[in-house]
Amino acid sequence: MNLLLAIDWALLIEKLILIAIIVFASLGIALYTTFAERKVAAVLQDRPGPNRAGPFGLFQPFADGLKLIMKEEIIPNTANKSLFILGPGLAMTAALMSCAVIPWSSHIELFDRSIDLQIADINIGILYVFGVVSMGVYGIMIGGWASNNKFSLMAALRGASQAISYELAMGLALIAVLMISGSLSLKTIVEQQMGPGQLWNVAYQPLGFLIFFICAMAECNRTPFDLPEAENELNFGYHQEYSSMKLGFYLFSEYINMIMSSAIMACLFFGGYDIPFLNESTLAPNVAAILGVLALLTKIAIFIFVFMWIRWTIPRFRYDQLMNLGWKTLIPLALVNMLATGAVILWHQG
Fold it and tell me: Is position 337 within any domain?
């Protein structure tokens, strides 16, 4: 009874509503990101793209989703059934969990309450993101192994080794940003970039951002780093034996990872919900919050477009080239960047 009395029910309801809004918004954005990708590909290839389902083809994502739901669900006889089901669920859950620490804007004021537009502002937010992203690799590994298919297993091994290789360079690039900000909280990092006379972190860490962006593409299995899904080499990659919504979960998790990676890069290097050349403190809190959400979504949309542009422009690396880039180029560059950042900080303090 004492525990029930100690719970702030209003805060709990606020967080549950915020979780529902962010999860359903992420799924909706991921749904239409698939449509945007097909349209971007069509423009780059000088063709119309999907244009039959609804006006301008706007209902095409719903048609694709309905097709996945209506398809027969097949589990191979030789597969490990429990792990076969767990794999796509784990990949989707890990993708959605990463949104918990992203600050979507400052706060809104409703019913005499100040509501933060962030599910959880924990002081180790970046470590939480890295932990959750690492969990997503298990979804790929489990799905590839449980399928009992040699091509799926080979693709899963590729995905695991690729994630290990590029998470090292990503972490080293991130350390340089943390040395500047002195905090692991994403909200604190964003607020520091919004301070008077402060520039976005990309101005101080251009090399760190470039390394982080390349590693984010590899983490999301996006071309030219989509070796775990290399159709012309491994048939259909780690989800070759999947059908219906299990396949849909793998495909959606890739797009949600892309959205969340874009949001994290915007927060770390581009001021998050900061609006350039505008002093948000002069605005009403609710107006500033809405404009902040729109600013962050705009930055995410720009990153997603760049992801798509690269996919339909640059060919896929060979696997040895992928490993060489990660271990022999990105990791040494990230180490040099980290040491140079530390030297500059010490010089300023001295």
Answer: yes
